[in-house]
Specification:
- This protein is of the alpha/beta class.
- The protein has a single domain (4-344), classed as TIM Barrel (Alpha-Beta Barrel), CATH 3.20.20.
- It is 46% helix and 12% strand.
- The longest helix has 25 residues, at 174-198.
């Protein structure tokens, strides 16, 4: 059970659509390359290696909380960590992203995907224990990659703009596709449950590439696997957040998957997103990350536009519409947190 002070935090209250003292703020990729202290501690250490060192995970996760005063921390990790943990031969190449040595293109290739056990990721549970002791009443968000996005990396062999191999498998062999996503749903569910049992206060499912799909294909070929993940973690009672990029046309479907909070990218105003998502969901978002390169007064005005669009909606967590861009000035983020808190103080 979470401490009362964490349960009463503005972030968790907003996720539950309860009244808050101010609109809570955190940023996707808040622990990352925009921070000089991050670049210093990561120097010479590969991405996946850094995700497997509890001391480093703890320090990196805490950095934006110390610097910006955000309302939630998010565990420093990567969506491919559980795949690496079960033995998939992959690496994260600087400037490229995850690269898989043996892409999944046939039924025989599915042998790479065994179930994930908590003992496969001891560094994650240890880091969460260290973090919850350090964070006090600041909630910690755990996360995982959604089945479709993980499938895209596994089938393509790396990042892809068009997802041609992924879609060819989805359309051409729907039975194999369904089995692949079912296995990935099980791995993702186990990874999230492990994080929750270790002490995270909320979880976010990232479906980074799902905006590449038409609504009909999402409903038929992807939604069931994502829904299985949300159902698998429902019993813990922690807020469940769902986010994908370029999902304006999918927002109504994302509202059906089972999340408590739906993340919205910068392309759809929050008032319109609320109409598409439907009732009983909090929203998260959705300032364009590139706005942070503008002068401070412009950033503040654009943030106000987001806040105004969310006015009257029960449950709003302020965030960017995607991750913090690496060249972002950290001071711009610090000012933005202070501005949102001041503008929305109740």
């Amino acid at each position: 059970m979470l401490p009362v002070t964490v349960t009463d935090s503005a972030f968790l209250k907003a996720c539950r659509r309860e009244p808050v003292p101010h609109t809570p703020v955190w940023f996707m990729r808040q622990a990352g390359r925009s921070l000089p202290e991050y670049r210093k501690v990561r120097e010479g250490i590969a991405m996946l290696d850094s995700c497997m060192r509890p001391d480093l995970v703890t320090e990196i996760t805490l950095q934006p909380v110390r610097r910006h005063g955000v309302d939630a921390a998010i565990l420093f990790s990567d969506i491919v960590v559980p795949l690496k943990a079960i033995g998939v031969d992959l690496d994260i190449k600087p400037g490229v992203g995850p690269v898989v040595a043996r892409p999944i293109r046939s039924r025989a290739d599915l042998d790479q995907l065994r179930p994930l056990e908590p003992d496969d990721v001891p560094y994650v549970t240890e880091a969460i224990g260290l973090l919850t002791a350090e964070l006090g009443d600041t909630p910690l968000i755990g996360f995982a990659g959604a089945p479709f996005t993980l499938a895209s990396y596994l089938v393509e062999g790396g990042p892809s703009r068009n997802h041609e191999h992924t879609k060819a498998l989805m359309y051409g062999d729907p039975e194999l596709w369904a089995e692949l996503l079912d296995r990935l749903a099980g791995i993702t569910s186990a990874f999230l449950n492990t994080q929750i049992e270790a002490g995270v206060s909320a979880v976010q499912l990232f479906d980074s590439w799902v905006g590449a799909l038409a609504p009909a294909d999402y409903r038929a070929s992807v939604l069931p696997a994502s829904a299985k993940v949300f159902q698998a973690v429902a019993g813990h009672g922690v807020p469940r957040i769902h986010f994908g990029v370029g999902t304006g046309e999918l927002l109504g479907l994302l509202g059906e998957v089972g999340a408590d909070v739906v993340g919205v990218d910068w392309r759809v105003p929050l008032a319109e997103a609320a109409r598409r998502v439907g009732p009983d969901k909090a929203l998260q978002g959705n300032l364009d990350p590139a706005v942070l390169f503008a002068p401070p007064e412009v950033v503040a005005a654009q943030a106000d536009r987001v806040l105004d669009s969310a006015a009257g909606l029960p449950g709003h967590v302020f965030n960017l519409g995607h991750g913090v861009l690496p060249a972002t000035d950290p001071d711009a983020l610090t000012r933005l947190v202070a501005h949102v808190h001041e503008r929305t103080a109740r």
